[in-house]
Amino acid sequence: MDFFTPDQIALLSASTVRCDFLVKFEFASSTMFAWNGNTKLDAGGETWLPMFGFGQIDGLGMSGGGTVSEAVTLSLNGLPGQALDMLSVALADTPEVDQQLLTVFLQLFTDDWQPAGVPIPIFRGFMQPPTVSRSAMQGTEGATQSISVSAENIFYSRSRPAYGRCTDRDQQSRSPGDRFFGFVSSLIQKTIRYPDY
Fold this sequence. Notes:
- It is a single chain.
- By secondary structure, the protein is mostly beta strands.
- It has two domains: 6-160, no CATH class; 161-197, no CATH class.
- Helix content is 13%, strand content 34%.
C-alpha cells in the first residue's frame, strides 16, 4: 500500500502546492481538532475548528528517519485586551494536557481549496505542561498573551542516562544510602590543600 494516493502525488508534483497543517489534541477528557484557517474544515471524517491565523507551529522538519529525537512547540497568540485570566485557565488545564498525545497532519488542497484525500500524519508526540507569556505594551496597542504547548516524540531525551547528574538526589536514586555527593554544596568556595603535610 502506497503512503500517498495518486491524487496526492499529482498535487505534490504541481508547480503550486496548496496545503496546511491540522492538529489533533487528545486531551485527557476529550479530543479537539484545529487548523489555522478562518472556517470549519471537514477532512478525514472530522471537523477541524479554525484558529483564524493566530496559531503557530515551530520545530517541524524533515528528519529522514523514524527514530530521531524531535520536539515541536505549538503556540496560540491571543488578541490585545483579552481577559487576564488566561494564565489561570492554562494552569488549571495542565492535567488535561500533560503527557497527552498530539498529532500534526499535512492536508493537501485542490485548486479551489477543497481537501484532497485524508490528512497525512507527519508528527506525533506527548504534550508537556502549557506555558503562558505576555508581550510588552506597544503604546496604545496593548499587549498580546500567548499560550505555548511543547510536544516531544518518544525518542526525545532518550540519550540522557537516568540519574546522570552529580547530585545527592540522583546518587540516592542510583545507590540508596550512598553519601558520596552529599557534601557537594559545602565544597563551594572551599580551599583544599593537596598534598596536606
